[in-house]
């Protein structure tokens, strides 16, 4: 993520609260309480990173907080220090409504130490009650096992909750105040490309920016891009991006001269889209001061079909490169760009990226292949993770290059944060990818579609945000695994659709209940034609983030013991957590 977009990253504020009674009580707790705050800050700074790979920064209140004056002093410091997440820690009883953080616009958590000497659990319950009563949902963190009063350990279950809350709360804070850039308008009637400003403003705290696709033509024709970087990018593309077989009928095959012209054009498109999103100081040096500023966009989308692609080369190369974690300048954070301007898929791509630091696969949720259908067509019987059937995830060729799975963790295929990707792994991703001349019947203006096959065996999570009139945004997710098929089986199935596009074979984890009774039900209950696929089983983090933003979750296959929401959610019922989630989100309303 460009520094022109991030400016100063939000920090985590640590609030050590204490029993305010002097003449012995408070004095005996000062060192223990402040030590708890310092250990929490050190733990989070060690385990969490910002999108540029730098360690997360924590700010600790100048003093322990025993009353409202010290709470107000901490709040003033937090505003100066750009704190976007608040964590209160205490080993003892404190005065709840006097010591609590009253900023309703940021996420809150409270860790009450589980010890017998002082009633930290009593304060935790009291202050969470105050948060609920005042309409500021807060997360409660309470270790399962009693600790000795002098213990400096952060128990494993507390670590998990601290990280889950902090990671999700930081994602919400990083999004706030940024923009979604709509490059073009509605694509082929896809509802997700109908920009809903209420979602972005009130649920995400973002603004919406818009440019017509004609801006790309203007910048190409008027040379509003860095010519030196363009030369570098074109040279890198010719050296590293392999041209694949042309799948078009003979009368639609273009000549070498036209093909070279299209390569030049799509490389310029890539530079221009990035500059539109985050700006480029080099443009000011070239006399384009206005264009140098960009649109402060943390995510964006390109309409493409059909008004663009009926005449100009498609955006598949542009979207693939921007969404990847490397390009001609080396490794860098992905720029989140949604195909067909599907802003709802762009939002969850952004969620996934901020939670993991990884590049995302944008895909159509194209086809459910039952075991019987696969065996009928190919003679192959599905086994292992795929024994219940597969979802064919494939779109028009714009998934991140990282989606090949050619990066590795402990010898297994993976998608890693850009700061962990090696040059060799980036080269492998490119080597396993073909850029094939676009299907002219779909894309009359030509271009190049990204074609690769995702390696099997990766834990992944498929996510989608849907909008429902009268209800608002609803999140759904499915954890599962990518799957390897025998080469001939993959080819037989893949060639029934467009073989120039990237394929990911996905097997969701089944629970035997609801939407996850079988793979068909996962497909049948998916809310739209697109999904964002992230490396890792990150469903629990997504559920926590959704609750922070007051977005209910309609389907998931995360173990209930891993679901972490504000404590007030349990006050809406414990027998049916999904119904309680809907009720709580409706009651508290959008965060902003």
Explain the overall architecture.
The protein is of the alpha/beta class. The protein has two domains: 165 residues, Rossmann fold, CATH 3.40.50; 410 residues, L-fucose/L-arabinose isomerase, C-terminal (L-fucose Isomerase, Chain A, domain 3, Alpha-Beta Barrel), CATH 3.20.14. The chain contains 20 helices and 23 strands. The strands form six sheets. Strands 13-14-21-20-19-22 form a six-stranded antiparallel barrel, surrounded by four helices. A five-stranded parallel sheet has the order 2-1-3-4-5, with helices on both faces. Helix 6 packs across helix 19, helix 9 crosses helix 10 and helix 10 crosses helix 13. The longest helix has 23 residues. The chain is globular and about 90 Å long. The two termini are 24 Å apart. The N terminus is likely disordered.
Tell me the quaternary state: single chain
Please count the beta strands (DSSP E, at least 2 residues each): 23
What is the annotated CATH architecture of the largest domain?
Alpha-Beta Barrel
Q: Return the structural class.
A: alpha/beta
Which spans have pLDDT < 50 for at least 5 consecutive residues? 1-6
CATH superfamily of the largest domain: L-fucose/L-arabinose isomerase, C-terminal
What strand line-up does the widest sheet have? 13-14-21-20-19-22
CATH class of the largest domain: Alpha Beta
Strand content: 15-25%
Binding site for Mn(2+): 340, 364, 530
Protein name: L-fucose isomerase
Function: Converts the aldose L-fucose into the corresponding ketose L-fuculose.
Keywords: Carbohydrate metabolism, Cytoplasm, Fucose metabolism, Isomerase, Manganese, Metal-binding
């Amino acid at each position: 993520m460009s520094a022109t977009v991030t400016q100063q990253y939000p920090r985590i504020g640590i609030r050590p609260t204490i029993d305010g009674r002097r003449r012995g009580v408070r004095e005996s707790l000062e060192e223990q309480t402040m030590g708890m705050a310092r250990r929490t800050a050190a733990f989070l700074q060690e385990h969490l990173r910002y999108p540029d790979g730098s360690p997360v920064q924590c700010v600790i209140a100048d003093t322990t907080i025993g009353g409202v004056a010290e709470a107000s002093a901490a709040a003033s410091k937090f505003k100066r220090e750009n704190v976007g997440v608040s964590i209160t820690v205490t080993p003892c009883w404190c005065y709840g409504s006097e010591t609590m953080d009253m900023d309703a616009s940021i996420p809150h958590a409270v860790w009450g130490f589980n010890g017998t000497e002082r009633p930290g659990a009593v304060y935790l319950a009291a202050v969470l009650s105050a948060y609920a009563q005042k309409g500021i949902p807060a997360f409660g963190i309470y270790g399962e096992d009693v600790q000795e009063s002098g213990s400096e350990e952060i128990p494993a279950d507390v670590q998990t909750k601290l990280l889950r809350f902090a990671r999700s709360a930081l994602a919400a804070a990083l999004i706030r105040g940024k923009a979604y850039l709509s490059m073009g308008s509605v694509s082929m009637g896809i509802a997700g490309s109908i920009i809903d400003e209420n979602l972005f403003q009130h649920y995400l705290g973002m603004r919406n920016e818009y440019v017509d696709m004609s801006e790309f033509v203007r910048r190409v024709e008027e040379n509003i891009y860095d010519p030196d970087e363009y030369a570098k990018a074109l040279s890198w593309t010719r050296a590293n991006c392999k041209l694949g077989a042309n799948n078009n009928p003979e009368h639609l095959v273009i000549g070498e001269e036209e093909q070279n012209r299209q390569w030049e054009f799509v490389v310029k498109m890539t530079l221009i889209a990035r500059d539109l999103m985050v700006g480029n100081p080099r443009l000011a040096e070239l006399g384009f001061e206005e264009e140098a500023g960009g649109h402060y966009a943390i995510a964006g989308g390109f309409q493409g079909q059909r008004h663009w692609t009926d005449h100009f080369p498609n955006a598949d190369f542009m979207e693939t490169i921007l969404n990847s974690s490397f390009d001609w300048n080396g490794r860098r954070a992905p720029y989140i760009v949604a195909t067909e301007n599907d802003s709802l898929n762009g939002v969850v791509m952004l969620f996934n990226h901020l939670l993991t630091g990884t590049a995302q696969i944008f895909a159509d949720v194209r086809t459910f292949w039952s075991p019987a259908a696969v065996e009928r067509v190919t003679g192959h019987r599905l086994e292992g993770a795929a024994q219940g059937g597969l979802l064919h995830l494939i779109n028009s060729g714009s998934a991140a290059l990282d989606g090949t799975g050619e990066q590795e963790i402990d010898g297994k295929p993976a998608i890693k944060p850009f700061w962990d990707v090696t040059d060799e792994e980036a080269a492998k991703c490119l080597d396993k990818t073909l850029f094939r001349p676009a299907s002219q019947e779909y894309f009359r203006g030509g271009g190049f579609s990204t074609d690769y096959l995702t390696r099997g065996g990766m834990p992944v999570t498929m996510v989608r945000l849907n909008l429902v009139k009268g209800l608002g945004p609803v999140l759904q997710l499915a954890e599962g695994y990518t799957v390897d098929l025998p080469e001939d089986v993959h080819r037989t199935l893949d060639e029934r659709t467009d073989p120039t596009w990237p394929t990911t074979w996905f097997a969701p984890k089944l629970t035997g209940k609801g939407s996850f009774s079988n793979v068909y039900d996962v497909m049948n209950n998916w809310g739209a034609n697109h999904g964002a696929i992230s490396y890792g089983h990150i469903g629990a983090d997504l559920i926590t983030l959704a609750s922070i933003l007051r977005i209910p979750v309609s389907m998931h296959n995360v173990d209930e013991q891993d679901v972490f929401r504000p404590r007030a959610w349990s006050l809406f019922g414990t027998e049916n957590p999904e119904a309680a989630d809907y009720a709580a989100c409706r009651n508290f309303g959008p965060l902003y």
